[in-house]
Design goal:
The protein has 334 residues and is an alpha/beta fold. It folds into two domains: 4-117 and 301-317, Nucleotidyltransferase, domain 5; 125-296, Nucleotidyltransferase, domain 5, CATH 3.30.420.40. The chain contains nine helices and eleven strands. A hairpin with a 2-residue loop joins strand 8 and strand 9. Helix 4 packs parallel to helix 6 (210-226), helix 4 runs antiparallel to helix 7 and helix 6 runs antiparallel to helix 7. The longest helix is centred in the C-terminal third of the chain and has 32 residues, at 230-261.
Length: 334
């Protein structure tokens, strides 16, 4: 069943639109919000206002660059959740208004399912079943995927997400927001074994990152008491060491999940999947364990509408449409 679908993503601080035709993503337009940098994190009210300013231009660009007229669309897709309520509301309202005006069906998409389905945008594509480690500023999960729209969370964080741990560690040592990519950049020049940080071990396939954040805070505080220039003198080694430990914690659980399920088709997704330390360590582990490993392109790691479009494509094939009175959900389980 062929279809041309416009997809809209507005779950956090990036406004994005994409057009997909017959399962092929034609473009992926993203407007970022630099305003949050001076506040050290995403300010929800500012994010929703920026979405309101950006969404018309982003959608128009996606349609124009794909050569698609509004009346040629077969459906309008949008991120329903999880995410920031104000940000989601902008995307949901715009999608609903467009669908009503054009007389087209709506397709709601779960943001986390979309991250997983980003692996079906380009080749190579994983075979079912596969495990997907989804890692971002708000989520850390191991998901067992048995079909395009059949997923089960078999392990997740009990407190903070790993992306939040990266950003908090960066803030502690004075790096600007978003700090995760900066830690990755400095880590490339450092010794990952220079300093040791606690491994918060919890039962089963669950994660916990609150302990390592606290341990890192106390470590930096104590070292700065001895030498106020400690961070400046050891920045590369500090970044390499904290990244090494966070990646180690992720891969320990992923390896356990593969062992317990017997699944060797392994994928990663989410903003933190762009981290070079994680990618390199995962490639090394995959070689040791004979895994078939799938890593998305960088543009599909962070929040983007291409992954929303791909999820919508599979829902369209099932004629899985959404009522016009649908409201956004800040929390939306897979």
């Amino acid at each position: 069943m062929s279809a041309v679908i416009l997809a809209i993503e507005s779950s956090c601080d990036e406004t994005s639109a994409a057009v997909i035709s017959n399962g092929k993503v034609l473009n992926n337009i993203i407007a970022t919000q630099a305003i949050h940098q001076k506040y050290g994190g995403v300010v929800p009210e500012l994010a929703s206002r920026a979405h309101q300013r950006n969404i018309v231009a982003v959608v128009d660009e996606a349609l124009e660059k794909s050569g698609t007229k509004k009346h040629e669309l077969d459906a309008i897709a949008f991120t329903r959740g999880p995410g920031l309520m104000g940000s989601l509301l902008v995307g949901v309202s715009f999608a609903k208004g467009l669908a009503i005006g054009l007389g087209k069906p709506l397709i709601e998409v779960n943001h986390m399912q979309a991250h997983v389905l980003s692996h079906f945008i380009d080749d190579p594509k994983p075979s079912f079943p596969f495990l997907c480690l989804t890692v971002s500023g708000g989520h850390t999960q191991i998901i067992r995927v048995t079909d395009y729209l059949k997923m089960e969370v078999i392990g997740e964080t009990q407190d903070d997400a790993v992306g939040e741990a990266f950003d908090k560690a960066a803030k502690i040592i004075g790096l600007p927001y978003p700090g995760g990519p900066l830690i990755d950049a400095y880590a490339k020049q450092g010794n990952p074994l220079a300093f040791k940080f606690p491994d918060t071990d919890v039962p089963g396939l669950e994660f916990s990152f609150s302990g390592i954040k606290t341990g890192f805070l106390y470590f930096i505080r104590d070292e700065k008491k001895k030498d106020e220039n400690f961070v400046e003198k050891n920045l590369n080694d500090i970044c390499a060491s904290i990244q090494h430990q966070l990646v180690k914690m992720l891969l320990k659980k992923l390896e356990q999940a593969s062992r317990e399920t017997g699944i060797k088709e392994i994928a990663i997704a989410g903003g933190v999947s762009a981290n070079s330390g994680l990618r390199n360590s995962l490639k090394q582990l995959a070689g040791q364990k004979n895994w078939n490993l799938y890593i998305p392109k960088f543009e599909y790691c962070t929040d983007n509408a291409a992954m929303i479009a791909m999820a919508a494509h599979f829902k369209y094939l099932k004629q899985d449409f959404t009522a016009l009175d649908t409201a956004p959900l800040a929390r939306m389980p897979i």
